Amino acid sequence: MKILFIGGTGTISAAISKLLISQGHDLYLLNRGQRNETLPQGAHYLIADVNDEEKVTSLIKDLNFDCVADFIAFFPEHLQRDYRLFKNKTKQFIFISSASVYQKPLSDYRITESTPLANPYWQYSRHKIACEDYLMKLYREEGFPITIVRPSHTYDERKVPVGVHGNNGSWTIVKRILEDKKVIIHGDGNSLWTMTHASDFAKGFVGLIGNIHAKGEAVHITSDESLTWNQIYQCVADALSHPLKAVHVSSEFLAAAGPYDFHGGLLGDKANSVVFDNSKLKRLVPDFVAVKRFDQGIKETIDYILAHKECQLEDEVFDRWCDDVIEYLEPIAQKIKTKYN
To answer: Which distant-in-sequence residues (6+ apart) come within 8 Å of 244 by Cβ?
Structure first.
């Protein structure tokens, strides 16, 4: 098949790109060319800013695709642009939404694609919902062959997935564990979460490309493995061969105390227990199975990050913020305990 990705070098899109190339598909990547060196040889590169519609129109004027997927659309106007560019150029258009669009707080921790979409905590999620609404209207009224994919927390060898981190990613958490420092876990750490390795996500995604039963449908792609946040952080510490010194802090306090977006990222997402029902995906892609267990995948990630300095992004501000939160809360707890003893 002839496939075009807008983006193609992120955590999930890079894994899908690699899988498609390995399967012999004709893959085109439309992006600014800043990270294409990380991908294997075999893709065709269309170097442009997708917002430059005149240039993109020129690049694709002689091309038609079996599928176009946009990995970097966040607002309805992005999809309005895509519709203008590709409405007569593709047999399928895939939009990458987010599992954070699902109802918060949840009425049932078991999430299916029919779970209501509503997230009052996170504007990012509300924009994604608006994107989905726009595309479904195009499908119903214009017959535009859309498929909506909702990833949850997906990681690869370049990214340690955690719940609380600063603006430079999760390296500071890894470093704190290596230095035997205390690490903040939101809530009591016992809410359930799902981690999906990008290589598993890619298998489900590729199974939807060119799939006639996927047109007009929304589907999430996740692992079937559920872990508590305590287990997730413990797996990271075990992979580092260092003890985990956890400090549990309420998500509400973190959202109030941070300069960081813990209101959306925690209250609107990771503070909730979620278990995904992947029955719909497995009907559409019968051979899909997520095989990368988290304790195995995170060991590979840790090994990679420790061997690649470019993945070790320092964040002194977040590191000090963690110290401040911990140093503020622990004496208060001890003071109250002493008062009532």
So the answer is: 177, 183, 233, 234, 236, 237
Is the link from the previous residue into 120 a cis peptide, with omega within 30 of 0?
no
Alpha-carbon span 50 to 30, nearest angstrom: 7
Q: Are β-strands 183-186 and 246-249 bridged in parallel, bridged antiparallel, or unpaired?
A: parallel
Strand 246-249, strand 195-197: pairing: unpaired
pTM as predicted: 0.93
Q: Are strands 2-6 and 67-70 parallel, antiparallel or unpaired?
A: parallel
Q: Which domains does the chain have, with CATH numbers?
A: 92-332 (3.40.50.720)
Q: How far is Cα 338 from Cα 341, in angstroms, rounded to an integer? A: 5
**In terms of DSSP bridges, do strands 93-96 and 146-151 run parallel, antiparallel, or are they unpaired?**
parallel
Other residues' Cβ atoms within 10 Å of the Cβ of residue 76: 16
pLDDT in tens, 259-317: 888 999 999 999 999 999 999 999 999 999 999 999 999 999 999 999 999 999 999 99
What would the pLDDT profile of 49-59 be if each residue is shown by its tens digit?
Answer: 999 999 999 99
Structure tokens at 177: 């564990």
Give the integer Cα–Cα distance in Å for 1 and 4. 10
The residue written with tokens 């985990």 in the block is: 244
Contacts of 205 (CB under 8 A, 6+ apart): 12, 16, 94, 149, 221
